[in-house]
Every structure is written in C-alpha cells, then in structure tokens.
Amino acid sequence: MRTYPCIAAFSFVVLLLIQDVIASRRREAWESTEQDSTPGVLPSFKEKPTHVTYQQGEEAKLECSVNNLGTKKVIWRRKSDPNPLTISRRTFVDDERISLQHVPLTPHWHLVIKNVRLDDAGQYECQISSKDRDLRRYVQLSVKPGKINHEAQAEINITGKTYVEKDHVIRLVCNATGHKQSPDDLDWFLNGQKLTTDMDKKVTIQKSVSLMEKTIYSVLEVAEANMKDAGIYVCRTSDLQIASARVDVLNGTTNTKNAKRGTEKDSSKDNALNGHKDQLTGSGTGGGAALHQQCTFLHLPVTLTLCVALWTLRHIDLLVYPT
C-alpha cells in the first residue's frame, strides 16, 4: 500500500506534461490558421475618390477600403510627414479633430478631420503594413476658404502629464475658446485653492489671448514638485467654463521600498514552491527521503509509465490532428 503515493505522483506529473504539450500544439495550429485567413492573396484597395474638396470648417472624410486585410493594419499619414496619423483604430497625433472611422467586420478605414482648416490641405496616404511598398493609395484633400463660424461651440481642455516624478516640473496647458469672443480671463485652482504666480513656491502662470481664434491660452508650471503639489487641478474661465485634471507626484523612494517588499514576497512564494517540488522529487529531507524509500520498489511501474509518456510525446501529432 506504500507504493500508491509514488505511482500517483509520477502519473500526475506525466499527465500534466502530456496535457501541456497537446495544448501547445493546438495553440500553434490555431495561431498559424489566424495569421492569414486566405494565404497567398494580397490585400487590395477598393475604388474610392482620390481627390476630395471641402470648405473651411466642414468635416472632411478621406475614404479607404481594403479587401482581404487579414491581420495587417491600415496606416494613415500625410505624404509630407513620415509620422503616422492613425494606425489601425488608434490615433497617433495630438489633434482632437483627427480620428478614424471604422465599423468592425467591414473593409472601410476612413480618415476624418473635423473643422478642417486651410493648412490641412495636401496629399494623404492610406498604407497597408507590408514590405510591399505598392500597398498604398493617395487621397488629395483641397480646402476652400469659408466664413468663420461665429456660433462655434465654446470649448475648454487641459493637457499635460498627469504623473510626475518628485522634484520634476508639473506643466499643464489650458486652452479655452469662447462662444463669440475669447474669455476675458482664466484662473487655476489646486484642490479648491486658487493659484497665482509665486516664486517662493516656484509656481508660474503665463497667459496669452488670440482674438482671431477667440481663445485664451494659459501655462501653469510648478518647479521641483513635491507630494503637496499632487491633486486636482482646475482651469476656470471668467465665463465659467471649467476643465480639470488629476496630477499624481511619484515618490521614487516609496516605489523602491514597495519593489523590495514585493521581491521578498515573491521569494517566499518561490521557497514554498521549491519545498513542494522537493517533496515530489524526493530531493528534500525527511518526507522526501521516506518517499524515496517507497519508490525503490517501483522500478517496473515507473518504467511502464515513462514508456507510455514517451510514446505519447512521439505521436502527439496524431492526438492533435486526428485523421
């Protein structure tokens, strides 16, 4: 009866090994199938307009539709700029007017430019990620001057890093556009307290106004930020437009201590796992030695089990791809 624990241990290890190999082979087969749904067929573009014209302030749409895209990606860029505007459905330009219009499971990947401007005019490139440089098409965008929309919607936003290392600079930018004219003034607040330029606290605020664009622009900088400078920053205009952003100040010392504590926890887990392995393999003391003594009488059952495992591994393809 002492032989049963050893047989169970060896059988459990062998079954886990076989299950892992079968799962790995099936996963490889699935991935190879997913890589190209129609092998040997290159993506191709559908016929779409190659020259579009819009009036200043309108929403421009540059169309690009692709057959047999597979796992490749669609990239939009201006021909004059090597940097991408969009890759797949992600936008890689800091311009909220630019986005990608795509409905899942459809071949359409259209570039959209809201409130199009005169300087947006030019040639745009729709490219498929491939070594073949012929997998691209060009769309020419023309923009006609138009009347300025004096009824434009008032907008306000804050940009800047929301995670800052201790002793580094917090820099936030607030843009506020008025309804008929630029707001008269703009104020900054931190956790409800108004901020002003204060050299002792190393806080500086700069403002500028564009009458043509009806926009007030303000830059807030906090030099050598510490933990007290973290919190909710609010930008508020004189006509009560409000935007907010949360800024966290990271303390490198605290992170280091947390990392060390995490390492100690991981080490304790590793020690526990190693102890468990020692019990199974018989390399530990006490219980491992007793298990080794029990296994000395099991040469024949163990040999048979290993033979079955080796045969299964050599013929694993028959299990993964049964005929």
From TrEMBL:
Q: Which residues fall in a compositionally biased region of kind Basic and acidic residues?
A: 261-279
SUPFAM superfamilies (alphabetical): Immunoglobulin (SSF48726)
Signal peptide coordinates: 1-23
Q: Which InterPro entries match?
A: Ig-like_dom (IPR007110), Ig-like_dom_sf (IPR036179), Ig-like_fold (IPR013783), Ig_sub (IPR003599), Ig_sub2 (IPR003598), Ig_V-set (IPR013106), Immunoglobulin_dom (IPR013151), Zig-8 (IPR037448)
Alphabetized UniProt keyword annotations: Signal
- Residue ranges, annotated region (Disordered): 254-285
Domain named Ig-like: which ranges?
A: 43-142, 145-248
Show the coiled coil region(s).
none
What name does the UniProt record give this protein? Leucine-rich repeats and immunoglobulin-like domains protein 1 isoform X1
Species of provenance:
Aplysia californica
